[in-house]
Amino acid sequence: MDTQPGGFVDAEIMITLFETLDSRFVVTESLHLVCSLNLMEDGMAFTVDGEEVNWRWLLKGAGWRWLYDNPDWGWFLEGGHWEQILREDRAFLDEQGFTDLFEEFDVEYVNTTDEV
After folding, report:
1. Of 27, 70, 72, 91, which residue is most buried, by most CB within 10 angstroms?
2. How far apart are CA 85 and CA 111, in angstroms?
3. What does residue 31 show for φ and ψ, rounded to 5 degrees?
4. What would the pLDDT profile of 68-113 be if each residue is shown by its tens digit?
5. Which band of pLDDT confidence, cut at 50, 70 and 90, is reported for residue 8?
6. Distances (CA, A) of 85 to 22, 28, 29, 59, 97
7. d(CA 91, CA 96)
8. Domain coordinates of the chain in residue numbers?
9. How confident is the model at residue 6 (pLDDT cuts 50, 70, 90)?
10. Nearest-angstrom CA–CA distance, 102 and 14
11. CA-CA distance, 70 to 48, in Å (whole number)?
């Protein structure tokens, strides 16, 4: 599913590149919260000021403002959110055919968010 028009390259386009070029390939990507909502429609829940919210709430104005005003990501790391994001990323790669494609062409996949 292409949730970000112009910001997504599908596996078929990559196959063309991989078959055409004789080279070693490294694909870099970063996590996109909106693309990480494929296993859980609204993402995981957490509490903000006594109210239960979820990842989709983060995509709205109030969510971004809350993140800006509360830069401590302890809630995210301690609440299992990071692990869920990684599961979502793996599911996205599998669903879109990238996992098999990268294996077939011996592609190194680097998620820059993981590196940071």
Report:
1. 27
2. 12
3. -70, 140
4. 898 888 888 888 888 888 888 888 899 889 999 999 999 999 988 7
5. low
6. 33, 17, 14, 15, 18
7. 8
8. 42-103
9. low
10. 10
11. 10
Write out the two tokens for 9. 């390259």
| Lookup: tokens for 80 | 């299992």
Q: DSSP string spanning the chain? A: --SSTTS---HHHHHHHHHH--S--EEEE---GGGG-SSSTT--EEEETTEEEEHHHHTSHHHHHHHHH----HHHHHTTHHHHHHHHHHHHHHHTTHHHHHHHTT-EEEEHHHH-
Rounded-to-integer distance, Cα 6 and Cα 55, Å: 23
User: What would the pLDDT profile of 27-73 be if each residue is shown by its tens digit?
Assistant: 988 877 666 677 788 888 999 989 999 988 988 878 888 988 988 88
